[in-house]
Amino acid sequence: MKRCAVVTGGSRGIGAATVVKLASQGYDVALTYRTQRTAAEEVAATAQRLGARTVLIQADLADLERARAVIHEAADALGELHVLVNNAGYVQRVPWEDVSLEDWERMIRVGLTAAFVCARAAVPYMKEAGFGRIVNVSSLRALTGAPHGVHYAAAKAGLLGLTRSLALALAPFRITVNAVCPGYVATDINREALATRGPEIRAQIPLGRPAEPEEVAATIAFLCSEEAGYITGQTLSPNGGLRMD
Ligand code: NAP
Question: Which of 208, 141, 150 lies closest to 180 in space, CA to CA?
Fold first, then answer.
């Protein structure tokens, strides 16, 4: 059966790789971008070559009304909605004492509240379809903490609580809710860290390298699949062995 998905932050990195992976598996995909229109168009073009219908939606997810509208625009354009990947996010590397309240609130809004808002808007479509998958892209930092990104780690840890709570609430409707906690991934978000501390970071990772975005996308796509229907409220952590629970 043709499935329809929304991927937030689909213009680059993990989100872009997820759009392409889902398209390769037969999904139609709506992808959001904030600033990178051209990159988002290229991702959409790749997905179309794989046979997907695509919808491009511009949104700054710090605007929660816009976050809600994204879901309705996607569902209107695609006709149905089965899958939501809450992926959009950013980091801000700053000592914890220097995180302003404004920094804190924006990070929590983009990284946590927008995921809640998108899920709440998406669930009625999933209930109508009798099938749903929500995947929240958290981070290894949710589990380890981050002294130079306390607001990032707090938002990502909050996503895990949201994941488990929604998993319980939505299980009666055949809607699963899971999280992924990637370790280091070779994307723009940590390009600077990998450029300045690359050898040190690689030395910490048992597999000796950061993940490719496609490797995280494969984990996300698995959680979206029909086959993953008995997995809910779980966290998968593609982290190269950095942490084993
Ligand atoms: P990326 O390459 O920087 O891409 C970030 C994406 O999020 C882009 O599509 C960007 O849109 C979008 N975005 C950023 N801020 C936004 C906002 N305020 N509103 C709407 N969209 C916004 O990052 P990535 O590495 O793929 O990260 C994707 C997710 O994985 C994030 O949630 C991140 O925290 C998580 N993660 C990444 C790593 C890693 O090592 N890379 C590790 C753990 C978790 P534009 O490009 O259009 O501006």
Answer: 141
4-236: CATH architecture: 3-Layer(aba) Sandwich (3.40)
Which of 45, 66, 74, 80 lies closest to 110, judged by CA?
Answer: 66
Q: Where exactly are the structural domains of the chain?
A: 4-236
Contact 117, 45 (CB under 8 A): no
CA of 235 to the centre of ligand 1 (A): 19
Ligand 1 centre distance from Cα of residue 49 (Å):
24
For the chain, give the longest Cα–Cα distance: 51
Q: Is 152 a catalytic residue?
A: yes
Distance CA 146, CA 192 (A): 16
Q: Residues 171-192: pLDDT tens digits?
A: 999 999 999 999 999 999 988 8
Residue 166 contacts residue 134 (beta carbons within 8 Å): yes
pTM above 0.90, yes or no: yes
| pLDDT tens readout for residues 60-103 | 999 999 999 999 999 999 999 999 999 999 999 999 999 999 99
Q: Is residue 56 pLDDT above 80, yes or no?
A: yes
Would you say the CB of residue 158 lies under 6 angstroms from ligand 1?
Answer: no
- How close is the Cα of 189 to the center of ligand 1, in Å? 7
Among the atoms of ligand 1, which is closest to the Cα of residue 33?
47
